[in-house]
Amino acid sequence: MDQSTISVFCPATIANLSCGFDVLGLALKGVGDRMNVRLTSNPGVQITRITGGDLPMDAGKNVAGVAAMALLEASDFGGGVEIEIEKHILPGSGIGSSAASAAGAVWAINNLLGDPFTLPQLVSFAVAGEALASGAPHADNVAPALYGGITLIRGYDPLDIARVHCPALLHAVVLHPQIELKTSDSRSILKKTITLKQGIRQWGNVGGLITGLFTEDYGLISRSLEDVIIEPVRSLLIPGFGEMRAIALKSGALGFGISGSGPSVFALTRGADTARRTEEALTRGYESVGIPFRTFSSPVNRMGVRPW
Length: 308
Ligand code: HSE
Description:
Layout: E1 5-15, E2 24-40, E3 44-51, H1 63-74, E4 80-86, H2 97-112, H3 119-134, H4 142-147, E5 150-156, E6 159-164, E7 170-177, H5 183-188, H6 196-215, H7 218-224, H8 231-234, H9 241-250, E8 255-258, E9 265-270, H10 272-287, E10 293-299, E11 306-307
L-homoserine binds near residues 140, 183, 260 and 261.
């Protein structure tokens, strides 16, 4: 490939991590999209090919296209880009499909232009694309996709992103029941207010999870993987959720919750062996639910979007 073209891997991500709605997320290894991006002398963004997903070719309606436009508008590059997207993350699965496309597009263009923008700037361009898919700008998928590892969105206005330490043994298990749940729909069912009691419990958990991650205190991580605000509402849309949680915890998982806005669910484990055991137990358990599903397990991806 010449210097005006790059091919990138764009990782799947788990947003929220139970207690951190819209603020916490981590990047996964092994599962992700591939994108080929080429600089052109003609201005504008063109999506030239999409495989693996029924997504709009019109750049103004495509998350990667909108994110790319946001970056190009802020840059002094007078040309444009052509983007090819190979989806391997199913849209609507809850593991950051749209975020992967948005993050991949901006990372690739920035790389081809000689890295004029910082990571926080790339996150803000990618969020413009992500907002198109979810109906609300949230950065908890695009930030870990771009930074790698685990990220915290400390604030949105202005965007303030912090890297969170990731314990070496942390693994994630994902089960994707193949029903489609649009992020915009699973956001629209959420209540707009919470009680003080819920707030106290939730921010205790967020603080506990961050502290547990930095100190590699797996007991504290485990106790903090609890969501008393979002999960009680959204879990009603995921068949078998309660049973799967019981199975994951019995297999030794640290915690279990909804990945992003669902329908995928996730468990975090200490080590690959527990991840494998949890994945096998969830697989056996979900067979009786009668919905087609996929599972995978993965260590945390510390790199984020990278050349393919
Ligand atoms: N934080 C977002 C939500 C993530 O839960 O709606 C969407 O993937």
